[in-house]
Design the sequence.
């Protein structure tokens, strides 16, 4: 399993999700994508995107205004 990192800090909605969608296509099933974002909308957008796409949200946290998500590619 490989961990990939997407730095979407500074991107406004909907770009963190657009970038996440693009990045997840380039990784293998079972790999994880760590997403870093500063857009507050990502707090609801990333979990909703995971539910919609069937990918698994493993972690979600915030530190000093940076939102961190870890998503496992399922399909």
Sequence:
């Amino acid at each position: 399993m490989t961990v990939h990192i997407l730095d979407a800090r500074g991107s406004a909605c909907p770009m963190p999700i657009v970038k996440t969608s693009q990045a997840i296509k380039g990784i293998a099933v079972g790999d994880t994508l760590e997403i870093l974002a500063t857009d507050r909308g990502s707090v609801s957008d990333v979990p909703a995107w995971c539910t919609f796409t069937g990918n698994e949200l493993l972690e979600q946290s915030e530190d000093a205004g940076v939102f961190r998500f870890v998503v496992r590619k399922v399909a």
Q: What stands out?
A: The chain has a mean pLDDT of 96.
